Model the fold of this input.
Amino acid sequence: MTGPGSRLQPRVVITYGTFDLLHVGHVHMLRRLRDLGTRLVVGISTDEFNATKGKTSLVPYADRAIIVGALGAVDEVFPETCWEQKRYDVIRYGAAVFGIGDDWAGHFDHLSDLCRVVYLPRTPDISSTMIRGSIDPADLLPRPRVP
Done:
């Protein structure tokens, strides 16, 4: 129902990622996902969850959450602590769309009973893995944290 005083329900899109070494591919993906709805919520993999996946991030979870949350396309961030939480999060946020990169194609089809599942093409020639591989670890020096 529309008319004076009525409000349209937001169309929530949900996605997940580590978002270590944020790059233009991340930004493109988040913008495309935001265009699928009116609100984008992003689960950021915690350092502890990444450890269970055999991954290590150069940027700690708290900083990654601040960085991703500061992007204009993103309305809210929350911690991703395990694989199983996705179904709960889709329900909790009332997500109409679950979106993720096409490198995960087919992995989350089991959520299609709750929402539309989309796999978007990744930006060619860029990834955190590629960036990490081009960094000399000797160049990584501890830096003071700025609040």
